[in-house]
């Protein structure tokens, strides 16, 4: 027999107020129903923690809705474009992207090997972006075909000057690799360049690991740090890092990134350049992936080979997104790709929403889309909200001292930095980081919300003061019931006299799979 003794909330309130008044019951009344009162006292003693010392768990009304792109997600603009279009597109994006040059922040190297920096120009960039309420996706690079942002000359590398001045440092040159124009290549035979590259990311992470102005860090080698030097014959250890150094670099990033989500190009799956896919230890690292030609005409398998999708499958294995953030840039293979990818009817047979879900995209650069037929601010906002995480609350309960939330993720990717539900300044016991789409978990806050739940919110040390992580919730709230129970499937209800009754709404009653005998007194 499986039995439950149920004490509903109205009766609990009676005992909470009257627990000290049982002595007032007359001796005559208690003796008349002696057996019944003995049973009742035992019940009261059993339920005392629930009646005299605590309130019922009850559901809290909670209404909330996601209304804008979430921090650290969505379509991305370069700072100049974001600045010029801020009035129209400012609330349609949360992220901006910029290449950054080591030579612009490195001033010299001391005799003991300490790198001397001047981060002022980089901090100015971060402040500019943050001033618009956005965070930066950062990519440091050495090579940029035809790039003139180092010294005004096409193709100059961004290797720090103190290294270039060394007698044992010798760059190589290609006049027009892949049709992209003049390009100089860093000299990877040089041990100081190798040492500097590792030390640079150590110093960067130490300074900026907890800086909310930065969302993600993209790393790599070759043209635009995209893990290739197309059009130039690759010489590992000369114009591209050796595989042994690359392994050291990946392992180094794991140890120094200090929580900053970092990504490499999907082209790192190509064993012509990279050791990653063939090395199980490297494949276990939690780096993310960026695709610099997303949604181009032959992106997918079945369309002229589907190189990009094959790269995703090779280095991503369909699961990398669970730990490493995934993003990239819409294709520039044609001048119309960035202008057309937001077409609700799709481009090359696929819609943006379809591809964002398939590859679990958190962010995507689309700098040339604004102002196009499909790149309206409204469509930008809609497309941004199809990326990343979407937190929702399915249940919200409190017992008067603690609040519990059943949380799920309705998005296409997890949140890759810590964030917590909170009531006022009191945070939950578990972070929302890593909550996968379609999964759920309980979080507990040692505080009590207002009756309408309006002080329940999400906080994070990794977003800007102007940013807010929203959540969906549609909970009405309901009357609580205390239940001291054991599992059962088909039960009846009885009063303390053993009489069968319909399911009661108050008082003390017995729920059992077997008829309860009348308590005789």
Structurally, the number of domains stands at 3
Shape: globular
Provide the CATH architecture of the largest domain.
Answer: Alpha-Beta Barrel
The main pleated sheet reads as: 8 strands, parallel
Strand tally: 26
Describe this structure in words.
This protein is an alpha/beta fold and 521 residues long. The protein has three domains: 3-53 and 487-512, no CATH class; 58-66 and 389-475, Immunoglobulin-like; 74-145 and 190-384, TIM Barrel, CATH 3.20.20.80. Helices cover 25% and strands 22% of the residues. The strands form six sheets. The protein has an eight-stranded parallel sheet. Strands 2, 3, 16, 17, 20 and 22 form a six-stranded mixed sheet that branches. Strands 23-1-26-24-25 form a five-stranded antiparallel sheet. Helix 11 (280-283) links the parallel strand 12 (262-265) and strand 13. Helix 9 packs parallel to helix 10 (243-256). The chain is globular and about 75 Å long. The relative contact order is 0.16. Mean pLDDT is 88; it is low at 1-30, 46-53, 481-490 and 513-521.
Please outline the helices and strands.
Elements (H helix, E strand, L loop, with lengths): L2 E6 H10 L8 H6 L1 H18 L6 E2 L2 E3 L9 E4 L1 H6 L1 H4 L5 E6 L1 H4 E4 L5 E3 L2 H12 L3 E6 L20 H4 L7 E3 L8 E3 L5 H18 L5 E5 L24 H14 L5 E4 L14 H4 L4 E7 L12 H10 L9 E5 L6 H4 L11 H7 L4 E3 L11 H8 L6 E8 L4 E7 L10 E4 L2 E2 L12 E6 L10 E4 L12 E4 L5 E4 L7 E3 L5 E2 L6 E5 L9
Parallel strand pairs: 4-5, 4-15, 5-8, 8-11, 11-12, 12-13, 13-14, 16-22
Antiparallel strand pairs: 1-23, 1-26, 2-16, 3-22, 6-7, 9-10, 16-17, 17-20, 18-19, 18-21, 24-25, 24-26
Helix pairs in contact: 9-10
